[in-house]
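help with this:

***
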Amino acid sequence: MKCYPFMESAFFDALQRSGGADESQGWRALHWQEPRSDGDFFMPIYRRNQSWGEYVFDQGWEQGYRRAGLPYFPKLVTSVPFTPVPGPRWRGTLESPEALWRHVSESVAEQQASGWHLLFPDNSTREALAELPLVSRQACHFRWNNRDYTDFEGFLALLTSRKRKAIRKERLAVAAHGLDIRRASGADIPADWWPAFYHCYAMTYFKRGQKPYLRPEFFAHLVNSVLREQLTIVAAFSADQMIGAAFYLSDSETLYGRYWGCTAEYDALHFELCYYQGIELCIEKKLQRFDPGVQGEHKIFRGFEPEITWSLHWLADPRFHQAIGQFCQDEARSVQAYQQDARSILPYREGVLEKS
């Protein structure tokens, strides 16, 4: 059975050893690790002096601290760097919520941090910590759910006629460019794809005048790790030259769309590589869901459904903890209203969602 990839030591090792998420990049590791008879326990904890790469936006909180003449940084964060993907947030068996709370509280005091933030926990993680004095914050992301489709046409059949035609038109537009779309996973990914993929990925950042989050060595570490068989690249070629690519990871139930880029602009290429090819991959591998990453209301019209994601927060200063708790309650109402609005414009035919 393929494991959830983002809590594996191979993933954190790749981030650390490649220099993508180490102290020089603002990720000082203070991980909680304990050898145990039933398997080692591991929970990532980072000391942070910024919020870059977290995808839970707390700049307003930092500004509030600054106005009060107090430091918001450093803060402690339990997360997977650059990976806004819900899932477990420790590996192994948690002794008890009280033991976690003692460890976190002591770490916050030792580091003179403003608080602790646990980002993108799955439901099991949230339930395990439900009795702790943590503020819950909500956000809305988009995911595609596999309704036991046998092929892509089976998925399209559940959409309204107008949206079905629009998707077919986008896929035909890509075909009209004469591009060759290829897909490879695990050991079958050709070695010469990796540098070409990285060039495409880096272009996404260079176009915005930024540096890429990740370095080529990160992907090299993954290729040579136990996660190798959980990697997929979907690439577009023009005259045997890679001009666009998307990178995926998967486990036994979910496909995760993580990184993409292109060296030349083609109509609808992003949708083809990042969404439609991913949907086809889910159907072929009989995966239950597809998480394509954060943001992007354009996902709604392509069948990705709005779902609530969470983060948990504790601010050591009781005044700020209370104020941020009230803020998150007010924000949650807006997030839930947004989710309902998004569901109302999903492209599925009447009655499809009710049967799910």
Q: What stands out?
A: The two ends are 26 Å apart (CA to CA). The chain has a mean pLDDT of 96.
